[in-house]
Design goal:
With about 350 residues, this protein is of the alpha/beta class. The chain has helices at about 5-20, 30-40, 70-75, 80-85, 95-105, 145-155, 180-185, 195-215, 230-245, 300-315, 330-345; strands at about 45-50, 60, 65, 110-115, 155-165, 170-175, 190, 215-220, 250, 280-285, 315-320. Helix 10 links the parallel strand 10 (about 280-285) and strand 11.
């Protein structure tokens, strides 16, 4: 008997679901709703992309580099050992966690997610498991601790972005067969016999983020890499829930196209109708996530306000990005946009 394409698709979907590792302590719908309540009610959050790439501002050796500035290592094909020297110059003297959190609050935001570790592997906290972190720079201050303290003081929730891929870690290497930056660096290769060692490293760092900074959201990225699979993602999900049962984890902890808990994460786009799961759309205010000096294509505050209304009306949250510059300052246009959105929300809070 011939099977229709739809029948085959449904069969494969069912098989995929059965094959997935089981979730830890399966929740009832009500238990899940209770855990997600603050997030569902928050509606609006601040994304902060900040790291070594911020001091480059999208420029390498005097030449502007196309693409997102936080991908400059990939787009300019900078060897890890050369890129690592940027840590020698990292000194964002104007970084002020209280001011950043205060700005988020004035904009009407209820939580903040910071790039604790992006794809380049540099950590914004004092980690026991690497020297490629902020504590090893001349700046020395623990950026994540300062943000965590500021969020608690001003009653905002803290989330930590953590990249599954790591261009600095010894377990991974550039894919020499790649024909472009995405194939070489986006699909970074895991060295033979190193996968479990790196997963253990990830778990140790995630435990630090939870135990030392009490993060409320683990926001993963880089799940697209071929050596990361559903089994590893679900194991990490379960591990995190054991450490902090009430924590919220985004769907990129596993394979985003197959997994929807705890919330979906459309990027630079959003759904135009309600979907049967929690979700959050993340957007930039210009064309880059990290600070890019030559990018002045700022979205009008009115457009962002309208986008927020559309997303909220479909049951989603908006995670709106800022990219502090090399000194730690949020660019003036970003500040201006956020304050205007905050004013609009204060006039029409619903």
């Amino acid at each position: 008997m011939k099977l229709s394409f739809l029948s085959i698709l449904l069969f494969l979907s069912a098989f995929s679901l059965r094959a997935q590792p089981k979730l830890l302590n399966k929740e009832s719908d009500q238990q899940f709703a209770n855990r997600m309540r603050w997030f569902t009610q928050a509606k609006f959050g601040m994304f902060v992309h900040f790291g070594l790439y911020s001091q480059l501002g999208g420029v390498w050796k005097g030449q502007p580099v196309e693409g997102y500035s936080e991908w400059i290592q990939a787009n300019a094909d900078i060897p890890p050992e050369e890129y690592a020297h940027l840590a020698d110059e990292f000194d964002p003297v104007n970084f002020n966690a209280d001011s950043i959190v205060s700005l988020a609050k004035r904009a009407g935001m209820k939580y903040l997610v910071v790039t604790a570790k992006h794809h380049d592997g540099f950590c914004l906290w004092d980690s026991k498991y690497t020297n490629f972190d902020v504590a090893s720079t001349q700046f020395k201050r623990d950026i994540l601790k300062e943000l965590s303290d500021a969020c608690k003081k001003q009653n905002l929730r803290l989330g930590t972005y953590y990249s599954i891929i790591d261009w600095h870690h010894s377990s991974q290497e550039e894919n020499s067969n790649g024909k472009n930056a995405w194939e070489r660096w986006g699909q970074v290769q895991m060295k033979a016999g190193e996968r479990q060692k790196y997963i253990d490293f990830m778990k140790n760092q995630v435990r630090e983020l939870i135990e030392n900074y009490d993060t409320d959201i683990m926001w993963f990225d880089g799940d697209w890499v071929k050596w990361w699979d559903m089994e590893a993602g679900m194991d990490l999900y379960n591990y995190i829930r054991r450490l902090k049962p009430g924590i919220i984890i985004n769907n990129r902890v596993a394979k985003r196209e197959l997994f929807q808990k705890d919330f979906g994460t459309p990027e630079q786009s959003h759904f135009n109708k309600e979907v049967p799961y929690k979700w959050e759309a993340c957007y930039t205010m210009n064309n880059s996530w990290g600070f890019k000096a030559g990018d002045s294509n700022w979205k009008p505050a009115a457009d962002i306000y309208q986008k927020l209304l559309e997303i909220n009306s479909k049951g989603g949250n908006l995670l709106l990005n800022v990219g502090p510059d090399d000194t730690g300052n949020i660019p003036d246009p970003s500040v201006d946009i956020l304050l205007k959105v905050g004013e609009m929300l204060s006039v029409h809070p619903d």
